[in-house]
Amino acid sequence: MRKKESTNFENEQFLFQVCELNSAIAMISGRWKSQIVYSISKGNDRFHLIQQELPNISETVLARQLKELETHAILVKQKIPNTIPLGVQYVLTNKGLDLVPILEHLCDWGKLYADGKEISTCSIS
């Protein structure tokens, strides 16, 4: 969180007003967000399933990234009835579902132009 009186905050707000792309990138920026969205789109809709899919993410970071995605209405957290302890699943909203093909295209773009790295597979595609 930036201080509202900081130059960084003011610059960020200016960029958001100038181009919606900056706002969109801010919503999905973060090391794990794109992978989390893609994992959920493939059926890994529970915390432990996402963690299995992304074993290098800590529980704290995963929880924070999920909360941020929820704040931006990319996903919603739903209680699973009749589970003890109470189960929770993550479901992509229409906004989140619309994001998946964009992430797939970005992955394809990355395969072509990833700083000279040879990439044979990408988790998104």
TrEMBL record:
Keywords: DNA-binding, Transcription, Transcription regulation. It holds the Pfam family HxlR. GO terms for molecular function: DNA binding. PROSITE patterns: HTH_HXLR. SUPFAM superfamilies: Winged helix' DNA-binding domain. Residues 19-118 form the HTH hxlR-type domain. This is Helix-turn-helix transcriptional regulator. It comes from Zunongwangia pacifica.
